[in-house]
């Protein structure tokens, strides 16, 4: 197995140092995912830039955003991101029943949130070929055409992190040792 370095600001390649400093300032620590992505300044910049843009510009509520992130992470069987977005979803006040349904691949009882979840799952599973019926059902649930495209963007963010975690075996964060976050693919 090839080992990847989880870079600190000091050990990161020159092209990643400034971005890692900004990540550390924003989060109060350097997440191991970003430390791993720092191996490639391009990968770190792409992921962090897109993640930051989504957080700042999405029209989804914080809870809805975390629902999409969590849905993708579960579908991609990414333990690191599923645990991380469980924590973030709780901080965004996503209902615990919804979080558990997502983590257990069970239906969500809230019809609007279930529509968001189903649309996200369909886009991921069908690699974008979700079809007109899926788009129409999403719009009929009260979402917008802009949000169709936002789902695609959020999926792109999670695909970068989920695939990175699979390939590099990103170590879990300390807070992920909390049994309430534990999740196995």
UniProtKB/TrEMBL annotation:
InterPro entries hit by this protein: AhpD-like, CMD-like
Pfam families: CMD
Segments forming domain Carboxymuconolactone decarboxylase-like: 41-119
Segments crossing the lipid bilayer: none
Official protein name in the record: Carboxymuconolactone decarboxylase family protein
Organism of derivation: Asticcacaulis currens
């Amino acid at each position: 197995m090839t080992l990847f370095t989880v870079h600190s600001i000091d050990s990161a390649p020159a092209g990643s140092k400034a971005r890692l400093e900004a990540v550390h300032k924003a989060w109060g620590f350097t997440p191991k995912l970003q430390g791993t992505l720092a191996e490639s300044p391009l990968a770190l910049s792409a992921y962090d830039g897109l993640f930051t843009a989504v957080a700042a510009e999405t029209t989804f509520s914080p809870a809805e955003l975390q629902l999409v992130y969590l849905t993708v992470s579960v579908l991609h069987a990414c333990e690191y991101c599923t645990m991380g977005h469980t924590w973030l979803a709780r901080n965004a006040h996503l209902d615990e029943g919804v979080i558990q349904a997502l983590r257990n691949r069970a239906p969500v009882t809230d019809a609007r949130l279930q529509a968001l979840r189903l649309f996200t799952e369909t886009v991921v599973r069908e690699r974008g070929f979700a079809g007109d019926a899926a788009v129409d059902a999403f719009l009929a649930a009260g979402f917008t055409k802009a949000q169709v495209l936002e789902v695609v963007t959020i999926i792109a963010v999670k695909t970068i992190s989920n695939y990175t975690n699979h390939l590099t075996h990103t170590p879990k964060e300390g807070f992920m040792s909390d049994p309430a976050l534990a999740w196995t693919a």
